[in-house]
Amino acid sequence: MNFVPRRLRRLPALLLPLLLATALAGCGGNSSKDSSSSSGDTLHGITVSGDPGKEPTVKWNGKLDVSKTSTTVVNEGSGDEVADGDQVSANIWIGDGYTQKKSYSTYDTGHQAETVKAGDNLSPVFKDAILGQKVGSRVAVTATAKDAFGASGNPQLGISNGDSVLIVVDLMSKTQVLDGPQGKAQKAPAWAPKLVESGDKVTGLDFKGTPKPDGKLSAATLIQGTGATVAKGQTITVNYLGQVYGAAKPFDESYSGEPASFAIGVGQVVTGWDKTLVGQKVGSRVMLKIPPAEGYGAQGNSQAGIKGTDTLYFVVDILSAS
């Protein structure tokens, strides 16, 4: 149950099948990469203009008819190439090739650039548009809706499985994501439960001998990272495990899957995270003790089995901040 990512990172549902690696694993047709800066045949006469970092202006050439995924570098940036494992901030514009209308844009009010981990786990629709491209580039992708979204298309965007799509990706910045915490180990405080580990992964918390919660929000650095200090409003990538005080097993964790990314200090997470993770250093492992008032309140969260009186304990590894 990936409860915490859904709560911590309020990713628009329409982008879940686009950007998460597991959603499109094995989906998509053949991809042909064109590194030229002109519209050319791969864009089927479509003109994409404007500067990367601002919403593109798109002029269609009638209904877009495609049978395979093609990638075109519209504007080549001057930054470093995106390498496997890099965390990329990208603005995304999506148009329906059947109606020739915009379906979604991170440039719209209320949306923000998406954070994507570059690598072979990206869907074919996005792999050539991100991996190996230079920061600052604008890359356009033409594809069938089935290749972009799966067999059902994307009804949330009004895109049927028989439609085609134009996707414009602006690569804004990149950050290297650590494989795990890096720094000097610190002595854990008396209130902190012991970590249960298997290899380099945290699998649970052992509350034997841990005093009862005192109702206070607390944070302890178990490993002091040596990276940059996390600032309010940054997007951070973390591995984490959360467990209710006294519980035998966690209610959620990311160590067995992919790290989670979300903005910190701006209300996208429970207040206990916002108040304690801003100011920490990248590379740190932090233990959090979060009373109900700083977590899910008196209502708790029945989906995760959290009551309104439960104190939450988290171990959080801060892997990047950008």
How would you describe the overall organization of this protein?
This protein is mainly beta. It is built from 5 helices and 18 strands. The chain folds into 2 domains: 3-175, Chitinase A, domain 3 (Roll), CATH 3.10.50; 183-321, Roll (Chitinase A, domain 3). The protein has helices at 3-8, 16-19, 124-130, 145-149, 271-277, and strands at residues 31-34, 47-49, 57-59, 69-75, 86-96, 101-105, 114-117, 138-144, 164-176, 183-185, 194-198, 201-206, 218-225, 235-244, 252-253, 260-263, 285-290, 312-321. The strands form 4 sheets. Strands 1, 4, 5, 6, 7, 8 and 9 form a 7-stranded mixed sheet that branches. Strands 10, 13, 14, 15, 16, 17 and 18 form a 7-stranded antiparallel sheet that branches. The longest helix has 7 residues, at 124-130. It is elongated. The model is unreliable at 1-40 (pLDDT under 50).
Report the radius of gyration as a whole number of Å: 22 Å
CATH fold-level name of the largest domain? Chitinase A, domain 3
State the total count of DSSP E strands: 18
Percent of residues in beta strands: 25-35%
Distance from first to last alpha carbon: 27 Å
Described by its quaternary structure, the protein is: single chain
Weakly predicted, low-confidence segments: 1-40
The level of helicity is under 10%
CATH architecture term of the largest domain: Roll
Number of structural domains: 2
Structural class: mainly beta
Helix-strand pattern:
HHEEEEEEEHEHEEEEEEEEHEE
**Shape designation:** elongated
| Secondary structure tally, helices | 5
Sheet having the most strands: 7 strands, mixed
* CATH C-level name of the largest domain: Alpha Beta
How confident is the prediction overall: mean pLDDT? 86
